[in-house]
């Protein structure tokens, strides 16, 4: 059995755990992800919310994603740490923010979205799958990341 993967917000009010391994990560370079991460991109791992054992209560707000779809953004109401996103509220399929993991060393993005909006000076691994915008079938694209090396 794999060891539990843990994470949470900056202040510790929300903690989560799930059974590893960590799903393949991807990076998004769209304007919304740059803004929410206050950085050049945001890294996420797709998973189902019910696989998380969460302690503490998240708060959410709704935005329109760069692709035009509705996105529910879940965060800690105390410290503001963005934890995961979902197309639904309550959440089902989520994208967990890699930066909230207690141990994220060794996690590299296998794919990149919205490369057309990439911050200048950021170099991408040429072996990674790079999409200029967002694939038509995002769920399938994310699933394919798990099969690529």
CATH classification, class level:
Alpha Beta
**Overall mean pLDDT:** 90
Number of distinct helices:
2
Runs in which pLDDT lies below 50 for 5 or more consecutive residues are: none
The fourth-level CATH homologous superfamily is: glutathione-dependent formaldehyde- activating enzyme (gfa)
Structural class: mainly beta
| Sequence of strands across the biggest β-sheet | 6-7-8-9-4-3-10-11
Query: Cα-atom Rg, whole angstroms?
Result: 15 Å
Overall number of strands: 11
- Largest sheet report: 8 strands, mixed
Which series of helices and strands comes N to C?
EEEHEEEEEEEEH
Task: List strands and helices in order, with pairings.
Blueprint: E1 4-8, E2 15-19, E3 25-28, H1 31-37, E4 42-48, E5 53-55, E6 58-64, E7 70-76, E8 82-86, E9 93-97, E10 109-113, E11 129-130, H2 138-145
Parallel strand pairs: 3-10, 10-11
Antiparallel strand pairs: 1-2, 2-5, 3-4, 4-9, 6-7, 7-8, 8-9
Describe this structure in words.
- This protein has a single domain, classed as glutathione-dependent formaldehyde- activating enzyme (gfa) (Alpha-Beta Complex), CATH 3.90.1590.
- 10% of the residues lie in helices and 37% in strands.
- The chain contains two helices and eleven strands; from the N terminus they run βββαββββββββα.
- It has helices spanning 31-37, 138-145; strands spanning 4-8, 15-19, 25-28, 42-48, 53-55, 58-64, 70-76, 82-86, 93-97, 109-113, 129-130.
- An eight-stranded mixed sheet has the order 6-7-8-9-4-3-10-11. Strands 1-2-5 form a three-stranded antiparallel sheet, with no helix packed on it.
- Strand 7 (70-76) and strand 8 form a beta hairpin.
- The mean pLDDT is 90.
